[in-house]
Amino acid sequence: MDIFITQLSNGLAIGSIYALVALGYTMVYGILRLINFAHGDLFTIGAYFGLTILVSFALQGNVSPLIIPWILIIMAAIGVAIIGFLLERVAYRPLRNANRLAAVVSAFGASIFFANALKLIYSPNRQSYPADIINLPNIPIFGVDIQSKRLIMFGTAVLLMALLYWYINHTRTGTAIRAVAIDQGAAKLMGINVNKIISLVFIIGPALGGAAGVLMGLFYGQIHPEMGFSFGLKAFVAAIIGGIGNIPGAMLGGLLLGVVEAIAGGYVSGSWKDAIAFGALIVILIFRPTGILGERVADKI
Amino acid sequence: QDVRIGLMAGLTGPYASEGQDTKRIIELMIEDLNAKGGINGNKVQLVIEDDGSSPGTAATAATRLASTKVPAVIGTYGSAVTEASQDIFDEAGIVQIGTGSTSIRLTEKGYERFFRTAPRDDEQGRVAEESLNKLGFKTVAILHDSTAYAKGLADELKAQIDKNGRVNTVFFDALVPGESDYSVVLTKLKSANPDAIFFTGYYPEVGLLLRQKKEIGLDAPIIGGDASNHVDLIKIAGKDAAKGYRFISPPLPTDLDTPVTKEFLASYKAKYGTYPGSIWSVASGDAFIALVEAIKAKGADSEAIADYLHNDLKDVQGLSGKISFNEKGDRVGDLYRLYEVDGDGNFVLQPE
Amino acid sequence: MEALKQTRHIGFWTGIVFFALMAVLAIALESSSGGNTWLRTLNNIGIFTALALSLNIILGQTGLFNMGHIAFFALGAYVTAVLNSVLGWPIIYTLPFAACITALFAFVVALPVIHLRGDYLLVVTIGISEILRIAFVNDIFGLTQGPNGITGIQRIELFGYRFMSQFAQFYLIWGFVAITACLFYFLEHSRFGRALNYIKYDEVAASGNGVNIVRYKLIAFALGAFWAGMVGTIYAPFIRTISPGLFEFKESVLLFAIVILAGGGNIVGIVLASFLLVGMRDVLTMFGDWSMLLFGLMMVVIMIIRPQGIMKPRRRQYNAGHLVGKFPSGIGKKAGLSAGNQAEVVE
Amino acid sequence: MSLLSLQNVIKKFGGLTAVNDVSFTVDEQSVVGLIGPNGAGKTTVFNLITGNYAPLSGTVTFRGQVINGQKPYKIVQQGIARTFQNIRLFQQMSLLENVLAGRHCRMHAGLFASMFCLPWQQREEKSAVERAMQELAFVGLDAGYDNEAGNLSYGNQRLLEIARALATDPKLIILDEPAGGMNDQETAALTELIAAIQKRGITVLLIEHDMNLVMNICQKLVVLEYGAKIAEGTPEEIKSNPKVIEAYLGTSDDE
Amino acid sequence: MSNTSSYIEIKDLVVKYGKVEALHGISLNVKKGEIVTILGANGAGKTTLLASISGLIRPSSGTILFDGQPIQNIDSAEIVKRGIIQSPEGRRVFSTLTVWENLLLGAYTNHDKQKEKDILEWVFTLFPRLKERLKQLAGTLSGGEQQMLAIGRSLMGDPKLLLLDEPSLGLAPLVVRQILAAAKEINERGVTVMLVEQNAVAALKIANRGYVIEVGRIVMDGEAHALMHNPEIQKAYLGG
Ligand SMILES: Nc1ncnc2c1ncn2[C@@H]1O[C@H](COP(=O)(O)OP(=O)(O)OP(=O)(O)O)[C@@H](O)[C@H]1O
Ligand SMILES: Nc1ncnc2c1ncn2[C@@H]1O[C@H](COP(=O)(O)OP(=O)(O)OP(=O)(O)O)[C@@H](O)[C@H]1O
Ligand SMILES: [Mg+2]
Ligand SMILES: [Mg+2]
């Protein structure tokens, strides 16, 4: 039982990272239906930004360990947001009126570009965040010691999800974002500046990705230029499983993916865990064809 | 007339740091050799192809090299990558000397012109079992990462353990390389409660395992194979977590006291400012030395080189010890040593 | 042939000329020094072209987002490799098995998920291909030899001739591409091909006009997989050692990109896009560390330059001009309904 | 004998009863109009007939056979073709190919025959093209057969949909607001077209809000409101039915 | 005809779709407080005209003055902010948003809460069906219901100039009359209206003036009353 709870917490922790990346994914995906392969790399860039800031400003030792994560997260989020903004301008906007899959190709190109740019800048080798930035005590839950960093990750993910949900569903801009996602032409007729809304989404989404990257580095230690691809892929899958454009769905999808992986890895086999996770997700889709929480569909004939 | 030698290395891709270091070593050795007049007065020229550390790219790279008609090729790192190129070199009649490819089957397929300076996994498996027993562990958990090399070594080790019956395997599974979080597998290991964990994969995962093992409160020590012999290990794990980590590996040149290695290290340090980080790039230096010997004796003809390497090359002093090959093309002699990481993050050779 | 007389098959003749030029190019390369590398690059391109053509049936023609196509290719290659290396069958005998087993696999896995829309299907296909790859890594049924893969695959032998050199394989591979292109071209210009397009553009309208959507989607999947399986059979002896590392997800995305870049399922576009993407990937390796960076950049730039794809989607041409005005009009011009209301084209 | 009959058909969407216990029949060779206020459930009735939806209860009988619950493509094969209220053409395809879609269910060439260009497949193609051109001519669009359907104006898109439906060799054609977006004169032409369709021996069931057209051409009208049938009869009867006037027509004081 | 009191004034407007020229130089004007109807057969270019006023298409030449300011090169969002609001052809409701959310979006540029409330009340009295269906996804509304929503939504933006593109399309006769009456009522509240209609009789009945477009050119214009009795118009557009 203890082991089970520990495995669950393992799954929820990594699932929180998936969820964070998936949230950014679903934002961008929901509005442009763009499979933004580069999102995973934006996540990686966030992790590298965090490390660079940590090292080059020699934060460690000079600033309280409780503040360091916040500095890193905020700075990296800003940096990545700028890159996301530029990315949309350069690589996606010219393709706005083309087949939506054209932008997918461009995104794939951008992803390769970013990963290799990181390799050229930081070397292809893995880098690590110092092991002892944050040392927090474990917290007993149900009689099992749970690392408090996990709780922090989980809490951060839930908090950001809630904020984003509120923002999308209960603000004027949020409704505008959803309107642009459905019909850009009609949105223009409402007086919505479609370009601005899309830029905004490409600021929020990547910022979330960048923040997730820093969390990843801080709490798991190692980063490398290629890590974003598989993370991005898994986050994308999580976002779809949750239901396209559905923010709590993306969150749930991410957490579920983490937990299924943990249970599969912990109780079946580490070498099959990804296969089991994918299999479980396929089964979910067979029974819920528009994702766990469903996508709003209105196919009236 | 120049002598041309091919080098196939993973200059990009996951093993890029190995590949880059390999390239540096070979370039350095050629520079030194040419400064001394080359082979019998002929300068040596290098033809490099990047195998991208992946089998698919390797096949293309091998064809490229084959079409340049070099008599011999050094490389490469990674058994699967090497394997993808073997058939192509074989068909072209080119001598290939693998460097960091330890999978058994590479030399079991009867290629006449394939050699390697790396020892084989069964040898390493044997030494691993030996060491586990010597260190007094009764139960061991074996963990690999599903790559060609690590899986092969894990299977070999398990076979040795089963054969000798001195140690018990209580766990056998894989992790997925390249991930950031291994707490799931560590939690699982904890519940298996082994005396020691033998991980056969590469240093980045070892680093993370060490780091996260501490966080999860798992006390059993981790012991690793030769793929963890890389200085970056310490960076990833942190000195604290790395302390006490043990692995088996062919000796580092810094631990060898022969004139050849000393000269090489001095020259390397002078040029690049550090010592080479990995044993496998050093093994490519061995391949180079063997090749030079063969060409010196028989000229730049593949058949003659292969023949020489099989039959005439005996105990030539290389960078990681003496070099000779058996009829299969495998390196002869026992190379493996046990290392332990000390509190300052140094790899300390353990007395035999 | 009736088909060629009847309609203006420009694409068809373009194809003939193209393949003739390719054959000449191959001879020129074979006789030049260092041409072998280029031949291999061409062969690589040929393999990907054939694969992209098979994906095109699923993605380009039917509009099913299949981002796991590499799985079918992998399965075909593995079936051939196992039959050849374990049972010792000559490669050519394994061809129908590789094709049929792959098609069957595609059919069975597609059956429960074929009703999924757009991106949900995309995710499922990604999942299926990853599951299959992991199964290969884990040496499923003890047949795939795990991560090391299967080695020592023989070369193809036909009528006693062994396809060994790049030059010989060039004819094999590009011959296969030519046949594929030709057959798929006919397929596209038929009731079957149109039905696939109807499904792509509007499922409700397609089924409202009598197209059995599920059936056609499944056939499209199975046919694409069948072909990919055959390409696998050709690839295995070409590369001689197959391992799961050859069939990673990124290759699926590359194939996907080829079909999209081609523009609207255009066959000529697919050949060009394969040259551009696969060829570039090979050629750019000369830039060392910078190669993949440049490759990524190039993908973005090409897409921006040609957002609609390299080739404009060409509508099928029908030989119907002579029928205009031949039939009585039920409503027509007298009512002024349709005539004259079209805006005129200005150059 | 009636060609099509609906008996006590019910369809619900969540809590909303879109079609409530509706029964009516359509006689062979007649033109029947289905009218009613917006949201009355007319289109839903069509969707129940063509198999896009399955009724919760009740039966739809066509030529003596129960067809509800069958897939749309099966129903087309049996001889019911339709047009859509929100035009559903294959926008990027040519006019001709749109009409060829209608021919699909009467053709046989499969994968193999198509791939290898068998002679009978070629003959079938040829005659399908001819037939499609015939239908295009019927609605007056044959000259532009190679144009992209999406570039047609709204009214012509409607005509194209009709041609596509006719190409399926229907016994019954179902038109959902065919005159939507047409001006009076165009509507008058459409009226002629529908008469011509009827003359070909095809039964017509249509939804329309243009009373001129409906009253001119229909032999029978069925009126729905809130999903239920509130009246049925000849145009004259319906015109003067107070319930219909109140719910749908309004008092045409100023016309 | 050009007149300083024109609210909207269009001069020599040429619009192209790629190689296809849809408008060949159209000039027209609408005065403040008027209802002007645009008539024309299918494909004549009416929708194209409205789209260029709303800034959805960039004209290749010509000018559009609104309240004296050129707007032909201004972003559609800004045009909406200035008070030109369109209820587009084909409704274009946000299908996966609810009726309520659609109405809110209509008021996107309207930041006056009280006014928003007032207009909402008015929309509900015009189209009580919408009030019943506030929570339904717009895409599942019947065709006519969607049309009501599209018009209601455009009113929510508090237009100064309202562009209605075939508002009666697909509506029951009773509702058509209501909608045109509503257009009249909207106009009486001080909104200038441009009305594209196939239903020429009904449109001319409520309009002050009308223009007739044929294949991208204006072929006739005048007082509504005069147009209605013009024999050519009667033949071509009034079903004769
Ligand atoms: N898929 C659906 N989900 C939920 N409600 C639906 C759906 N389809 C139709 N409805 C509702 O059912 C009712 C009937 O719709 P239907 O489209 O049949 O009306 P109609 O009579 O065709 O109206 P109109 O003349 O405006 O086209 C409407 O109130 C509509 O909102
Ligand atoms: N996106 C487009 N691409 C090419 N041509 C177009 C496009 N949109 C419209 N057209 C053409 O421009 C001309 C004018 O079209 P428009 O939609 O403005 O006509 P309309 O008067 O609104 O007709 P309707 O009454 O059918 O709505 C038509 O010939 C049409 O085919
Ligand atoms: Mg309807
Ligand atoms: Mg219009």
CATH topology term of chain C: ABC transporter involved in vitamin B12 uptake, BtuC
Weakly predicted, low-confidence segments of chain C: 1-7, 332-347
Number of domains of chain C: 1
The CATH class label of chain A is Mainly Alpha
What is the string of SSEs of chain C from the N terminus onward?
HHHHHHEEHHHHHHH
Unreliable spans of chain A are: none
Short structural summary:
Chain B is α/β, with parallel strands linked by helices and 352 residues long.
Would you write up a description of this structure?
- Chain A: GO terms for molecular function: L-isoleucine transmembrane transporter activity; L-leucine transmembrane transporter activity; L-phenylalanine transmembrane transporter activity; L-valine transmembrane transporter activity.
- Chain A: The chain crosses the membrane at residues 12-35, 42-61, 67-87, 99-122, 151-168, 197-221, 275-294.
- Chain A: It is a multi-pass membrane protein.
- The complex is a heteropentamer of chains A (301), B (352), C (347), D (255) and E (240).
- With 352 residues, chain B is α/β, with parallel strands linked by helices.
- Chain B has helices spanning 16-35, 55-67, 79-92, 121-134, 148-164, 183-192, 203-216, 232-237, 239-242, 259-272, 279-298, 302-311, and strands spanning 3-9, 44-50, 72-74, 95-98, 114-116, 139-144, 168-174, 196-199, 222-224, 246-249, 316-317, 322-323, 337-341, 347-349.
- The longest helix of chain B has 20 residues, at 16-35.
- The N and C termini of chain B lie far apart (47 Å).
- Helix content of chain D is 38%, strand content 24%.
- Chain D has ten helices and ten strands.
- Chain D has helices spanning 42-49, 72-78, 95-103, 111-115, 119-138, 154-166, 184-199, 211-217, 235-239, 242-249; strands spanning 2-13, 16-27, 31-35, 57-62, 65-66, 80-82, 172-176, 203-207, 220-225, 228-233.
- The longest helix of chain D has 20 residues, at 119-138.
- With 240 residues, chain E is α/β, with parallel strands linked by helices.
- In chain E, helix 3 runs parallel beside helix 6.
- The mean pLDDT of chain E is 88.
- The chains are: A mainly alpha (301), B alpha/beta (352), C mainly alpha (347), D alpha/beta (255), E alpha/beta (240).
- At the A-B interface, helix 1, strand 1, strand 4 and helix 10 of A face helix 6, helix 7 and helix 8 of B.
- The structure holds adenosine-5'-triphosphate (2 copies) and magnesium ion (2 copies).
- One adenosine-5'-triphosphate (ATP) sits between chains D (13, 16, 18, 36, 38-44, 85) and E (140-145, 170).
How is the secondary structure organized here?
The complex is a heteropentamer of chains A (301), B (352), C (347), D (255) and E (240).
Chain A: H1 2-32, H2 38-56, H3 68-92, H4 100-122, E1 127-128, E2 138-141, E3 144-147, H5 148-170, H6 172-182, H7 184-189, H8 194-220, E4 222-223, H9 227-242, H10 247-267, H11 273-287
Antiparallel strand pairs in A: 1-4, 2-3
Chain B: E1 3-9, H1 16-35, E2 44-50, H2 55-67, E3 72-74, H3 79-92, E4 95-98, E5 114-116, H4 121-134, E6 139-144, H5 148-164, E7 168-174, H6 183-192, E8 196-199, H7 203-216, E9 222-224, H8 232-237, H9 239-242, E10 246-249, H10 259-272, H11 279-298, H12 302-311, E11 316-317, E12 322-323, E13 337-341, E14 347-349
Parallel strand pairs in B: 1-2, 1-3, 3-4, 4-5, 6-7, 6-8, 8-9, 9-10
Antiparallel strand pairs in B: 10-13, 11-12, 13-14
Helix pairs in contact in B: 1-10, 1-11, 2-3, 4-5, 11-12
Chain D: E1 2-13, E2 16-27, E3 31-35, H1 42-49, E4 57-62, E5 65-66, H2 72-78, E6 80-82, H3 95-103, H4 111-115, H5 119-138, H6 154-166, E7 172-176, H7 184-199, E8 203-207, H8 211-217, E9 220-225, E10 228-233, H9 235-239, H10 242-249
Parallel strand pairs in D: 3-8, 3-9, 6-7, 7-8
Antiparallel strand pairs in D: 1-2, 1-4, 4-5, 9-10
Helix pairs in contact in D: 3-5, 3-6, 5-6
The structure holds adenosine-5'-triphosphate (2 copies) and magnesium ion (2 copies).
